[in-house]
């Protein structure tokens, strides 16, 4: 019975998942996700960059096996608007890294 219970629990997916975006979002409207990652002492596993044209801070890449990758909540190209309650518009990537 113990092994059966273990196998049942081991087959479940306990990773956080986001609901899909609704299909009826107008094309000129942006959708926003609020993501919560608890970092502890491990690195985030993502790099950021400033978009050349807009100046937005975006996720440049997500490193395989890192916290961001395992969570499934961050993707390359995502725009960062706020980190830990601090707006990142106009900040340099180095300043955003310090907040992260």
UniProtKB/TrEMBL annotation:
Highest taxon listed in the record's lineage: Eukaryota
A Pfam family of this chain: PDZ
Domain L27, first and last residues per copy: 1-17
Domain PDZ: 34-100
InterPro entries xref list: L27_dom, MAGUK, PDZ, PDZ_sf
Signal peptide: none
Name the UniProt record assigns to this protein: MPP4 protein
Gene name of this polypeptide: Mpp4_1
